[in-house]
From TrEMBL:
Name under which the protein is recorded: Uncharacterized protein
Species whose genome carries this gene: Sexangularia sp. CB-2014
InterPro entries noted in UniProt: LRR_dom_sf
Highest taxon above the source species: Eukaryota
Length: 108
């Protein structure tokens, strides 16, 4: 489904303040710059997320990639990241490397 910027803002607000959500699959949701920044802010402070799928997120420009990268690097619980079907100009390989026993980095 296509959530859009408003929907992603609501999801990100929940992620920022929720300690029980461990998985988020954002399949085929085209991310724009605002959505990437909102998601990155939530990921940076979330302390429960273990599995994130951005399958089919579309093409990300440098600003979008940088926003997501900052959020992902700050997150200390993420163990699985999937970007299969997304068009990243840069590699996200190693982003969750420092987290305890990362289990998968798919589509990098």
């Amino acid at each position: 489904c296509i959530i859009g910027a408003k929907g992603l803002k609501a999801i990100s607000d929940v992620l920022a303040n929720n300690l029980t959500i461990e998985k988020l699959h954002m399949s085929v949701n085209r991310l724009d710059e605002e959505a990437c920044l909102t998601l990155a802010d939530a990921l940076a402070i979330n302390s429960s997320m273990k599995d994130l799928s951005l399958y089919g997120a579309g093409a990300l420009n440098e600003a979008m990639y940088h926003s997501l990268l900052v959020g992902l690097v700050c997150n200390k619980t993420l163990r699985r990241l999937s970007v299969t079907g997304s068009r990243f100009r840069y590699s996200l390989e190693g982003v969750v490397h420092d987290n305890a026993r990362p289990t998968a980095l798919r589509g990098l």
